[in-house]
Design a protein that fits this description.
This protein has 236 residues and is an alpha+beta fold. The chain has two domains: 101 residues, Double Stranded RNA Binding Domain; 116 residues, 2-Layer Sandwich (SHC Adaptor Protein). Helix content is 28%, strand content 24%. The protein has five helices and nine strands, in the order βαβββαααβαββββ. Strands 5-6-7-8-9 form a five-stranded mixed β-sheet, covered by helices on one side. Strands 1-2-3-4 form a four-stranded mixed β-sheet. Helix 1 packs parallel to helix 2. The longest helix is centred in the middle third of the chain and has 28 residues. The termini are far apart. Required for dimerization of active 70S ribosomes into 100S ribosomes in stationary phase; 100S ribosomes are translationally inactive and sometimes present during exponential growth. Interacts with 100S ribosomes. It is found in: Cytoplasm. InterPro entries: HPF/YfiA_ribosome-assoc (IPR050574), HPF_long/plastid (IPR034694), RHF-like (IPR036567), RHF/RaiA (IPR003489), Ribosom_S30AE_C (IPR032528), Ribosom_S30AE_C_sf (IPR038416). It comes from Phormidesmis priestleyi.
Amino acid sequence: MKLVIQGKNIEITDAMRAHVQQKIEKATAHFQPLISKVDVNLSVQNNPRIAPNQSTEVTLFLSNAIVRAEESSESLYASIDMVTDKITRQLRKYKGKRRHQDHTSVRPTDIDKALSNAEITPENSADISEVISHQPALPAAVVRTKYFAMPPMSVQEALENLELVGHDFYMFRNIDSNEINVIYERNHGGYGLLLPRQNHGKSHGQSDDGAAQNDQKEATISNVTPPKISPISLAS
């Protein structure tokens, strides 16, 4: 397991590095064979009006999942302790999900097929903007760039990863189409799936003869209670 520790507005001391390593090893003790890399980002906000101003972000790269957690405190060491405790809970949750899947009769391919066959309609077209509209305004400049592996996975696996990383959305490569999809949490419950338009770049869903096309698809799982993925209803 590779451990990478980085700092922002702070110099990483040997004591900090040792504390992070001890806490990460303890949190991942039963999962290290599944983890290829751990990224730890320690940061301090120089603005005194931002409190708590010392944060720790941890990202674990597993064979088929990404687990992420972040905590802030007035003490950097406290934020390290808090975030590793959260990582421990998330890994236990992940283990429970995998164990549950081994005994469930729900087939992920059924979910994937249902989602991929759902057409966008006037009633659910507004859902597409939810993933953006409920987010706070972002600064004009790109303040951070991340690169990560994107192995093909099913919609079911993407949903599990969404829950593990703690974000409102998760981008993944669909194993059935090999295209980039986005699954996201809807404001009114359930999850939505965004797929790329299939009309070769024509905008507004218009074909060569001006007829409207519904090539862009968006589906909603309205009754998902993780980790159980049934029953499923699609917005119409």
